Amino acid sequence: xxxxxxxxxxxxxxxxxxxxxxxxxxxxxxxxxxxxxxxxxxxxxxxxxxxxxxxxxxxxxxxxxxxxxxxxxxxxxxxxxxxxxxxxxxxxxxxxxxxxxxxxxxxxxxxxxxxxxxxxxxxxxxxxxxxxxxxxxxxxxxxxxxxxxxxxxxxx
Length: 156
What we know:
Elements: E1 7-9, E2 12-15, E3 26-28, E4 37-39, E5 42-45, E6 51-53, E7 56-58, H1 61-72, E8 82-83, E9 134-139, E10 146-152
Parallel strand pairs: 1-4, 2-5, 3-6, 5-8
Antiparallel strand pairs: 6-7, 9-10
């Protein structure tokens, strides 16, 4: 394999299978990292962490990070990345306390998220720019009018 020139940024990688045969946060046996740009990613496993770099196993994010930077000869790989529960809703939007919110890299030409919301100068990691919108409704008993107010999430 070869990751020369690979651009892997603003991704959420989640593994929910606890098996070294089938569950990896990252599996890369290549040693050619020329021009790779890997940053601002959130990795998470609900079980044991399994990382493979250059054919060697690493049992933690810290060990993986040291190995991938050494293999690439580039101390900037995975800048802004972290190993954390991304705290996503059932529809894959980040919750209001998600580590993904506002921690991504600005990507040239990427102006909207998967839902069509605008990206700003502090983009979020993952397909959605902001927390899923939630609303509060209030019924006026005298007029029968319902008022709907957005309490979280950004307007498109």
